[in-house]
Amino acid sequence: MANEIHTIGVLTSGGDAPGMNAAIRAVVRQAIAKGKKVKGIQRGYAGLLQEEIIDMEKRDVSDIIQRGGTVLQTARCKEFTTAEGQKKGAEICKKHGIDGIIVIGGDGSFRGAQKLAGLGINTIGVPGTIDLDISCTDYTIGFDTAVNTAMEAIDKVRDTSTSHERCSIIEVMGRGAGYIALWCGISNGAEDVLLPERYDYDEQRLVNNIIENRKRGKKHHIIINAEGIGHSTSMAKRIEAATGVETRATILGHMQRGGSPTAKDRMMASLMGAYAVDLLCEGKSNRVVASKQGGLVDFDIDEALAMTKTVDDYEYEICQTLSK
Ligand code: ADP
Ligand code: F6P
């Protein structure tokens, strides 16, 4: 094969996500099973530019499939968004004999991978983010664990909210996307869910809803607020003043990014990591692994980054109907 891969580099980039370790393990073991060498690049693109590169063997990924975070560490790296940084990164790959690289991260990380591909390093992206905001794929590694963590936390807030007959505004992560919020909205049976993709900033509607729910005999009012809307604390103060219902804000924050990955995240990470190695071994480059209708496929990174997706209308409608 003209551009046969001998050494595969692997890095994690952007926000960490539960299941990244399972993906690293899959890359290392599938690559070695196919006769390739593997090098782990620590701290994402920042570590690449600092040449923080280590050889990885099968035993180096023992005992990590069940662990949250990423053993390779992750980072956000401004220098790599510049043409000079990218050129330096490609040169460092060549210096270390890395002819194929697997980038586990989100859209931003894929933009970096796209640049490396343009500079002659074969690259494959694996979707790893709790936000589920990568358009080409139905699934991103970390989402299931994060949404389960948030759901369990919200159940706990609900207990105390019911006891005190309060309104609780609970803010979940997701950057500009409302997938975590929508899933919690349905799974926690929240009275209201505020999504960046849908919210009309009509606070009076929320106030009316709280008052009507009180009249219907509801003992609490749970509002899931996506971080893309934010401002939960000031919103709580305004809502309490307008409704007379005691209102508290809880921001779940980074706890949503940690913890042992669920079976779904371990499974998807293992399959996607191995699939990424297969693609490199087939001589492919500038591709993103994606889950579509239950199977794994891959897309050209340029096309993947140009795709758009949004929250499902039916799920949003059902979320509202079922909480009445
Ligand atoms: P995510 O991958 O989760 O979307 P970020 O958007 O923070 O996270 O991106 C992670 C890293 O990817 C950035 O810190 C940067 O190093 C790299 N990156 C992001 N955008 C670009 C770009 N346009 N060109 C090159 N590298 C990029
Ligand atoms: O992309 C994952 C994510 O957790 C987002 O949900 C959130 O907006 C962001 O990362 C937080 O980033 P940081 O860890 O830099 O605060």
Task: Jot down its keywords.
11 helices; binds adenosine-5'-diphosphate; binds 6-O-phosphono-beta-D-fructofuranose; four-stranded parallel sheet; seven-stranded mixed sheet; alpha/beta; single chain; 324 residues
How would you characterize this protein structure?
The protein has 324 residues and is of the alpha/beta class. Helix content is 42%, strand content 18%. The protein is built from 11 helices and 11 strands. The chain has a 7-stranded mixed β-sheet, with helices on both faces. A 4-stranded parallel β-sheet has the order 7-8-6-9, sandwiched between helices. Strand 10 and strand 11 form a beta hairpin. Helix 5 crosses helix 6. The longest helix is centred in the middle third of the chain and has 22 residues. The radius of gyration is 22 Å and the shape is elongated. The mean pLDDT is 97. Bound molecules: adenosine-5'-diphosphate and 6-O-phosphono-beta-D-fructofuranose.
